[in-house]
Design a protein that fits this description.
alpha+beta, 3-stranded antiparallel β-sheet, 7 helices
Length: 199
């Protein structure tokens, strides 16, 4: 666990707005493992879709002597990635978090709702918009898809790669941080060579 709080950048979304904070009414260990699954979902789907993963990590700290807080971060680069696969990779983290709750007998509607990371959806919408691809929050825009459709794509990929995601999540819970190459060693998935700046 860190002794210092995360940087402002680690606690904000891609637009600089603070990411949402939620109390899931779980133990610290359960929350930490859930975040490890969330970030493992992003990282494993990124590799499966041909993206380069630099790092993925669980970040924990003590904002006060009596409390612990948890967040996570995965740094990746899309490389000729299909727009819908890019969006599904963004959806993969929250869906994996929900799947963790179900697999470990912790699921409630409230906890599942707390896993819905709006910043992941908004990142997908903005990234696709930069390339003229339309992704709707709650509707199917003309010529595009809805976030619900993208979540369906991601759900199938998460189910297919659950063993690899679980392996990465458990390793991350133990070590805090993994590189893309370490994930390759753990899972056999390919981490393509880095071509330039990070996403």
């Amino acid at each position: 666990m860190r002794t210092l709080a995360p940087t402002a950048e680690e606690l904000t979304d891609h637009t600089g707005k603070p990411r949402g904070l939620f109390d899931m009414a779980l133990s610290y260990e359960q929350v930490r493992l859930g975040m490890a699954f969330h970030e493992a979902g992003h990282a494993v789907l990124a590799l499966a879709y041909g993206m380069h993963v630099m790092t993925t990590e669980v970040i924990t700290w003590q904002p006060t002597p009596d409390t612990r807080a948890v967040t996570g971060k995965t740094v990746w680069q899309a490389q000729d990635t299909n727009a819908w696969q890019l969006a599904a990779q963004c959806a993969g983290g929250p869906l994996t978090h929900i799947q963790y709750l179900m697999a470990y007998g912790l699921w409630t509607p409230e906890r599942a709702a707390a896993c819905e990371a709006d910043h992941d959806r908004e990142l997908a919408i903005d990234l696709l918009a930069q390339h003229g691809v339309r992704l709707g929050r709650d509707h199917v825009p003309q010529g595009g898809k809805s976030w619900g459709m993208v979540r369906g794509m991601a759900r199938r990929k998460v189910s297919h790669l659950w063993s690899e995601i679980r392996t990465v999540a458990l390793a991350m819970d133990e070590r805090d941080r993994l590189t893309g190459d370490e994930i390759t060693t753990l899972t056999g998935l390919v981490n393509p060579p880095l071509r330039g700046g990070a996403a």
